[in-house]
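Problem: given the chain below (103 residues), write out its structure.
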Amino acid sequence: MKLFGYLMILMVIQLFILGSQIQRGRAAWIPAGFLKKIPEAALPMYCRKFGNHLLTLAIIAGICAWLSLTAPAVPLTPVILFGAGIVLVMMLIVMDTKRHMEQ
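Solution.
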């Protein structure tokens, strides 16, 4: 489980850098599939929300890293928690993409 904790620490660093840069308006770092039908006027707010969602996933990954590094046994809780976090963030991103397409 220590390996999973160290991987989660790397994931936290990557997600934090990516989320904070996208949040500041770097739309080029967002996959093109999400940006296809987003109007130009809604792009700054969409970037801010997309970055916030990635920062939320970074927090979840940090919690998973802490849980896996401090656990005396080999629990599956951090793995399940991170998987649920990925599903939650993807649902939020898809909902925001649909919402900004309608504007």
